[in-house]
Give the backbone structure.
Amino acid sequence: MTTRFDPAARLVIILGYVTGPAGTGRVRFAVDTGASGTVVRATILEAAGIVTPPGAPRRRMHGLAAGATAPVVRVPHLLALGHGRPDFPVAACDLAPTRPYDGLLGLDFFRGLVLNLDFAGGVITLRPPRPRWQFWR
């Protein structure tokens, strides 16, 4: 799927969705190829009915929250850039309300797919890889 973004902006922001037992929440994701994991604002997860279980594993947040840790929860369905990930682990982080995004879409979401960021055209594309035998296309 191809999505437009503002190539002059400081961040590449795209829309995504988390679906839980209580419904679907809209997430403004900052595309972050420097983040190993995906992060979603805790209030959005809670509104979708995704709760943090007692004793949930924690992930260290190096750049986002200055070394703080956040619990990792399993999202029943995460959708971004036309690709869905079932039972996907995300860090439930209390992001400052002043941030222009609700989460970070990290490398774990992009693994196994082909991500193209076209800053000249302001287009981001995420697609499955082509089979190796189709090298001429």
Notes: The radius of gyration is 15 Å. The first helix runs from residue 42 to 47.
